[in-house]
Amino acid sequence: MKIFLDTANIEQIKHSCELGIVDGVTTNPTLVAKEKGKFKDLSGLIGTICDIVKGPVSVEAISENADDIISEAEKFAEISKYVVIKVPMTRDGLKAVKILSRNKIKTNMTLIFSANQALLAAKAGANYASPFIGRLDDISHEGMQIIVDIREIFSNYAFNTEVIVASIRHPLHVLEAAKIGADIATIPFDVLDKMLKHPLTDIGIEKFKADFEKVKGEYKI
Ligand code: E4P
Question: What is the active site of this protein (predicted)?
Fold first, then answer.
């Protein structure tokens, strides 16, 4: 499973990329808004993320009608070859994705909350489809079930669309996504941090250190 980082924060992206496990980044208007004032403009922020990640970086179109989404996408696509345009799952979004995919501009259909929406995204030619599982859990729907359904549907046909499990809230979401065989999980920085920690690892390190300390004088490295 590929791991994307779900943030627009440069420090978080740098720290995580150093670990060598980050394949891409997803941003959204909320995440980008949090970084306000740190860059001259949005292109500067997205360009910097692309330079660090050197993999797919999703940036979301704000426009609502197809023509405007396409113009916005064309501008974003000039920033870097790594840019992927996030397009919300609407009628106009689908129209825009179809045209952008013909024009070889990469797209990620976002705000997907049902397997049928994912099916339509794949039919339109989206490179990625992003079901938001955490937000479904929030309203007492089993978010992860739509990942199971989408996997089944996509495996029935020859779609090239990759599923990005989005709106991840905790490490169990990542574990479940990997067990289902999702293509990608886009993970917030704090969840990634929790994934790499285990109390027994820390206890183990302390114990090894203490044991070796007792005989340190007798060994040369
Ligand atoms: C994904 O692409 C979105 O940016 C993100 O996962 C949304 O997560 P949230 O529901 O925690 O805002």
Answer: 86 (schiff-base intermediate with substrate)
pLDDT of residue 76: 97
Which SS3 state, helix, strand or coil, does residue 85 take?
A: strand
Query: Is any atom of ligand 1 closer than 6 Å to the C-beta of 132?
Result: yes
- The CATH number assigned to the domain holding 82 equals 3.20.20.70
One-letter identity of residue 153: I
- Catalytic, 86? Answer yes
Do residues 134 and 52 lie in contact, with contact meaning Cβ atoms separated by under 8 Å? Answer: no
Among residues 53, 42, 75, the alpha carbon closest in space to that of 6 is found at: 53
Q: Domain residues for 95?
A: 2-218
pLDDT for residue 158 is more than 90: no
The closest residue, in CA terms, to atom 10 on ligand 1 is 167
Task: Give the number of the atom of ligand 1 that is nearest the alpha carbon of residue 164.
Answer: 2
Average pLDDT over residues 64-80: 98
The residue whose C-alpha atom lies closest to atom 7 belonging to ligand 1 is 167
Assess whether pLDDT exceeds 90 at residue 61: yes
pLDDT classification of 156: cutoffs 50, 70, 90: very high
